[in-house]
Amino acid sequence: MRREVKEQPKYAVVAAVQLPNVSDVEFEVSLTELRDLAKTLGFEITATFTQKRSSFDSTAYLGAGKREEIRRFVDNEPEPVELEKTPPAAADPNAGMIDAIFVDHEISPSQARNLEKEVGCEVMDRTMVILEIFQRHASSRAARAQVEIARLAYMAPRLREAAKLAGPQGRQRSGTGGRGAGESHTELDRRKIRDRIAELQQEIAAMDVERQTQRARRQERQGLAGVALVGYTNAGKSTLMRALTGSEVLVADKLFATLDTTVRALHPESMPRVLVSDTVGFIKNLPHGLVASFKSTLDEALDASLLLHVIDASDPGFERQLAVTDEVLDEIGAKAVPRIRVFNKIDQVGDAAAQGEREAMLRTQYRDCIVMSARRAGDIASLREAIVAFFRRGLVEAELFLPWSAQQLRGEIFASCEVLEERADGEGAFLRVRGEAAAVKSLCERFGQAR
């Protein structure tokens, strides 16, 4: 009998410095987000250490006293009597089992190295955590290439400082006479990184051409009416995608559960046929390199005729999340694309009274928004109606006459337009249709418009 190997749990602590220009609410929201990122990596957070400072400690990010406090927690040492608080940090049952410390800012290699030496466990800053998550979750060839570029770009400027920490080894020279003679190991590594980034960028450019060709064919074949789901990660976009399209897309309570764009048809199908695409989620302080490298997945937002901006109505910090998404959309040039704000997860806002108050506030503050839960069939039906209504605004109606001798052409009419009504007489069938102006005009010219 095969024995199942159980994965050992991983434990970590979170540490952060609160600068004078950061409010308590904003600081706590950022810490909560970092804890969620840690959860996505499979870590359980056992403690959080915070410190208010005018600036980061240049040596090891945190002040000396806070570093010592974390070291005692990691080593499961009780606090000195004169500093003991109630309850002491070492009382936590998972103290002494810490695998990593997550820092809520991007820090330099020297700060990370010094902090790691003092506290006795691996240090991961916020940017490294996000890059690690992206690397694990990228599945398509394009996404993997884009993540690798971002990781290499993150590593490149740190090599020189890392070489200083490594000592004389990092300054060894290559042999004479060969290619790269006289270059240090660090310079060689940086050149290799530049070459690899250039190679990956060429691959992505080729994939972009292929993707644009496929998209153009799809638009030409189907007459694109595109909706893109955008919003903060974990706002419920994948759940909405699944409910709107009836597809089996990944739904998980993790940040960045999916990175690759998924495109499905609205279900049940409508006229015009609407394609719905999911995009990578946004997050505060998303490394700029990732915003740039993942622009290809965000291009779905640029190509869409309508954006559904999904917002977690149950999150106290939703206004900040909304602002982050708007900022990134503006950055990629999607500011002019029409959008509907969809406040999801209203069912997670306390009791019925609290939900009613939150919904009333949202509808007052954000005109024409939709407040809903992706888990309620009635709400999904209403959202679907709003999407279809948007695309029907530019449609026109006409009545066609199809003689009995040409009934074999009925399929073309039903494929091009929505047939609203049909009646017949001795000479043929009269069909009242609705569709895009160009398609209706073409049908009228071919079959003749009824009088």
Write the layout of secondary structure elements.
Layout: E1 10-18, H1 24-40, E2 43-52, H2 64-74, E3 100-103, H3 109-119, E4 122-125, H4 126-137, H5 141-155, H6 159-166, H7 185-222, E5 226-231, H8 237-245, E6 262-265, E7 275-278, H9 288-293, H10 295-303, E8 306-312, H11 318-331, E9 339-344, H12 352-365, E10 370-371, H13 377-392, E11 395-403, H14 410-416, E12 418-424, E13 428-436, H15 437-447
Parallel strand pairs: 1-2, 1-3, 3-4, 5-7, 5-8, 8-9, 9-10
Antiparallel strand pairs: 6-7, 11-13, 12-13
Helix pairs in contact: 1-4, 4-5, 5-7
Describe the structure.
There is one protein chain. This protein is 44% helix and 18% strand. The strands form 3 sheets. Strands 6-7-5-8-9-10 form a 6-stranded mixed sheet, with helices on both faces. It has a 4-stranded parallel sheet with strand order 2-1-3-4, with helices on both faces. α4 packs antiparallel against α5 (141-155) and α5 (141-155) runs antiparallel to α7. With 451 residues, the protein is of the alpha/beta class. The longest helix has 38 residues, at 185-222. The chain has 4 domains: 10-132, GTPase HflX, N-terminal domain (Rossmann fold, 3-Layer(aba) Sandwich); 138-170 and 184-220; 223-392, Rossmann fold (3-Layer(aba) Sandwich), CATH 3.40.50.300; 395-447. The protein has helices at 24-40, 64-74, 109-119, 126-137, 141-155, 159-166, 185-222, 237-245, 288-293, 295-303, 318-331, 352-365, 377-392, 410-416, 437-447, and strands at residues 10-18, 43-52, 100-103, 122-125, 226-231, 262-265, 275-278, 306-312, 339-344, 370-371, 395-403, 418-424, 428-436.
